[in-house]
Amino acid sequence: MSQVLSFNRPLPERYSLDAYKKHFAEFQEFQARAFHSQPINALVKARARFVDEVLLQLWQYCDLAKDKSISLLAVGGYGRGELHPYSDIDLLLLVEKRPGSAQHEAIGRFITLLWDLRLEVGHSVRTLKETLSLGKEDITIATNLLEMRLLTGNKQLFNELHEAAMSESFWTSQAFFQAKRHEQQQRHAQYHGTAYNLEPNLKANPGGLRDIQTIGWVAKKHFNTRTMRELVAYQYLTEDEYQELMECEAYLWQMRFALHLEAGRNENRILFDYQPAAAERLGFGADGKASVERMMKRFFRTVQRVSELNEMLLQHFEGSILNSQQKVKVSQLDDYFELHGHLIKASDNAVFAKRDNLLRLFWHIANNSNITGVHSTTIRLIRQVRRRLMGDLQDYEACRQLFLALLRHPRGMDKAITLMHRYGILAAYLPQWRNIEGQMQFDLFHAYTVDEHTHRLLKNLYKYSLPEHDSEFPLCSDIVKKMEKPELLYLAGIFHDIAKGRGGDHSELGAMDVREFAKLHKLSDFDSKLIAWLVENHLLMSVTAQRRDIHDPQVVAEFAEKVRDETRLNYLYCLTLADIRATNDNLWNDWKGSLLRELFLATQKAFRRGLEKPMDLRDLIRENQAEALPLLIKQSFIESEILQLWSRIKADYFARYSPKQIVWHTEHILRHKDPNEPLVLVSKAPIKGGTQVFVYTRDQAGLFARMVAALDSKKVNIYDAQIMTNKDGFAMDTFVVLEQNGEAVTSPSRQQSIKKALEQFIAGKPDLSRQKPRLSRQMRQFSVPPKVVFLPGNTKHRTMLEIAALDTPGLLCDLGQVFQQCGVNIHAAKITTIGERAEDFFLISNAADDALTAEQQSELKRSLIAQLSQQTEG
């Protein structure tokens, strides 16, 4: 019947390690070839049978077959008769009594032979009493015994164990269910309750193979069955649900089998290292990222289906099977729905024949805070009607009215939107949403699929309206609470990434989609234009804050000109913060928050002053000096001494730093006695969300490269740099740094260590040509073609340079050395890391302190590309 079954080469008659290894290798090659043509269940079962044969022969070889006081049992996945290429082989050697020396020696020899064959064997040697005693204490052992299988040995001993393990005195169905549910909850918590991660674990993640097994385990224990198929007869699941579970399991098995073959070991994480090869082996093509995205899209949709079935069937098991006799308080919500305890339930099986009831269900969830979820019977009805839908729910006027009502409800973005997303009703309503379900982005920046990212963004927006989150982002909370139409913000959130994966500019396409939505839902022209503008420009504020010098009044004026009014600014600021925080949990930090807040306040100020009357740079310089001077005089500094120092500093300095920072720098410079020694200051407390490192020293060739190398040696990330040389040849440079986890550097010992490293590197003691750290495993999977672009600047004496490259270790130090070799001065740097991609902006000049000529730009570009290419190859 199956080609897999035709592997009939017999094991060597006499044991030889080399012969057995060769036999295993031949079987492995055979299965790898058969992977493309055979059903996956045939492959995993064939491997289990193959291992059975090996174990039985080795059992005889070790003279254990003569021993009638022992049984060899397969447990766990092997007990189910399922093995992937490098799966663990879990064995229980069940003995009548503790082994004597001869039996102990034979068992030891048997296990050693398995290890010699490099099999991943998990084994235990226990008596019946020990097994049951440990099983009562450990749910994992108890679960393994559910699926034990006798390979050889004492059958009566096995039967006694099986009968005891299935009895209620061993584990009651109720206790077993509660233990397995708790175990699942703990496992899900390790993955933050979602499978939408960059490198998900297809076995342990929510919606993975473990969730399918948990569905079966609790029911197999209760009904005393061995297979999932048997549970249909007990009405635990329908025939369709059984078939769907088997389909999901088959795809996850295929991925797992392919991963094992690619990794050459028991690997269940879908690591970047194996994703392209696994995608090709699974038939998704060999076109790199596109193949991976197709494979992962199907994976994420599969685990979503498993998660839904898992939730529904476990709830059904607990409520309808275990607690079928318990009474639940029932109250009527309307003609269509009732409240069963804290779960909403359809009054009858025909409720969803009236399509708007699919939306009304979630409106009730928003409107009634006592509702915690949907009843399992109603989830089953939703699943059935979802498959029979002809067209989109938004085609119905009644559905459109309810959808808008849900968006406008104060709690619409709480449980209601989450459950709409979970049960596929958001996709059934918006056709564009179906395109982004499970849409992965192959990079280190986006930690979630597009639909999950958007869902998290909506939850972030909702938090702004909750009093308990006022202190988290007070400015956003204040803005949202004053908004007349927060639903417009939610709509911008829903559509901001909805066109991803369709080709073209997703912002422009999303804006077109939301205009069509607004027209269909009869929104006003003003509201339609506002939402479309937000979708089209949702990256504007983030890009400006992180890549431009927001202390430059011209940058703020240009941004304000694009935003045009304070209403748009308010909406855009809230959307931007929610978007960044929903992209990747590890990428948000207080420094980014500070940049966005500064840009918001500066733009708001520009609007309120009137764009035709922007603050003059000279006014800002005079204002900052006037505020800083009396603070310094209070510290007993002489005014003439202060002004003499300030006269040597370029005017730009006083526009870029706050009065408090000017005071901090000035007092330490005036007290610094030896001009030949560098002055290094590290802020004790965070300033605007980051740790500021200030360096005052004689300027020298390669100073920037040495400073960034010093900071790199202390394993801090640089986010911003202001590089300035005074009229007297002294450098006044400031770096904003954060720890690897995105937090400011607060440890006094760490601060002192950074200070000391900078002093040593500036003095030229370490060798900058030291061997650099290797790229991480994840980073090696990515390629970012180096890009060097010269941009039009705001001043004719400076050149603005953008560099994009792979974020390799020591990147800034290497760039600094190239600048030095080409005679380029750095005046400011904006350092941005987006996943695996570094996007850095520099304000530079030539040796004559002027903008670079065309020839100098060409030479610098050649040198930078050569260095970046060499770095990537290395």
Can you describe this structure?
The protein is an alpha+beta fold. Among the domains are: 17-170, Beta Polymerase, domain 2 (2-Layer Sandwich); 175-322, Nucleotidyltransferases  domain 2 (Four Helix Bundle (Hemerythrin (Met), subunit A)), CATH 1.20.120; 671-770 and 779-873, ACT domain (Alpha-Beta Plaits, 2-Layer Sandwich), CATH 3.30.70.260. The chain has 35 helices and 16 strands. Strands 9-10-12-11-15-16-14-13 form an 8-stranded antiparallel sheet, with helices on both faces. A 4-stranded mixed sheet has the order 3-2-1-4, with helices on both faces. Strands 5-6-7-8 form a 4-stranded mixed sheet. Helix 8 (173-190) packs antiparallel against helix 9 (209-223). It is globular, with a radius of gyration of 33 Å. The chain starts with 16 loop residues before the first helix and ends with a helix.
Number of helices: 35
Kindly report the name of the CATH homologous superfamily of one domain: ACT domain
Which sequence of strands runs across the widest sheet? 9-10-12-11-15-16-14-13
Question: Residue share in helices?
Answer: 40-55%
What's the total count of β strands? 16
Task: Give average pLDDT, whole number.
Answer: 91
The top-level CATH class of one domain is Alpha Beta
| CATH level-3 fold name of one domain | Alpha-Beta Plaits
Q: Give the C-alpha Rg.
A: 33 Å
State the secondary-structure class: alpha+beta
CATH architecture of one domain: 2-Layer Sandwich
The major beta sheet can be summarized as: 8 strands, antiparallel
Unreliable spans: 1-5
Beta-strand share of residues: 5-15%
Outline: globular
Distance between the termini: 51 Å
Keywords: Hydrolase, Magnesium, Multifunctional enzyme, Nucleotidyltransferase, Repeat, Transferase
GO biological process, one term: regulation of nitrogen utilization
GO molecular function, one term: phosphoric diester hydrolase activity
Protein name: Bifunctional uridylyltransferase/uridylyl-removing enzyme
